[in-house]
Amino acid sequence: MQKNIRNSALIILVTLFSSIGYSQIRVNKMTNKIKREFLDKKNENSSLLSIEEVVRGLKEALNVGVKKGVEKASATGGFLKNDLIRIPFPPAAKNVRDKAMQMGLETKVEKFEATLNQAAEEACKTAAPIFINAITNMSVSDGFNILKGEDNAATIYLKNQTIRELYKLFIPEVTNAMEKVKLSGYWSPLVTKYNLTARLTGKEKVETDLNKYVTNRAINGIFKLIAAQEKEIRKNPTQRTSNILKKVFSTLD
Fold it and tell me: Is there a contact between 69 and 226 (Cβ–Cβ < 8 Å)?
């Protein structure tokens, strides 16, 4: 009898404590939910300005990067004298270069490489306007992803947004520039002599598309310069030349 009473009392106590524990869990969940809702509402009321600042700051950073990048790329010697973006003899035509050097045509090879870079410099003079639309249309989510991204996140965004249009609009500029510096006048003698030798020795002829080659290298060169400027703004406070750049990028320090 007493044993039954004790068992019943134990069951009641276990049930009571279980009920209390379950209630406490529910209370904790409700408390956390209220806290989240409160914080969300608080953030909703206070984050509008910071969102605007983030996007505005990133747009300005890209504009600064584009402006300085294009200026450097399109300057006289902008490609030729900058090892970061200098355009070499086409790798696909390495055999042409090697053969030309063996034939004592070093001066023509050097002049040809110089004209490749001059063509890129000429083409870059018209590049800046192409970037404006992509920068203007940057969304809020793009902005925060870029801000929290790698040192070149803004440059990658810009490249993804413009690469096809940039190539389409850029290649006629490169073609015109290559005609302006008479690039074919240096290329044709080199490749003609090589292909003549190749025909006699049974080697494959070289048919490098110089317009495509220079266009791709010119575009990549500009983005390298923009990326370098973006990194400077992110890492070096002295490169933040406006209040909005200082305010936005100081959060990364």
Answer: yes
Q: Give the span between the Cα atoms of 217 and 124, in whole angstroms.
A: 11
pLDDT on residue 82: 95
What's the pLDDT tens digit per position in 10-37? 444 334 334 444 444 443 443 344 334 4
Residue 46 sits at φ, ψ, to 5 deg, of: -110, -10
Domain that holds residue 6: 1-46
Q: Is 104 left (phi over 0), alpha (psi -120 to 50) or beta?
A: left
**54 HSE (CA, 13 A, CB side):** 19
- Global model pTM greater than 0.90: no
- What distance in Å separates the CA atoms of residue 10 and residue 14, rounded to the nearest whole number? 6
Same domain, 204 and 239: yes
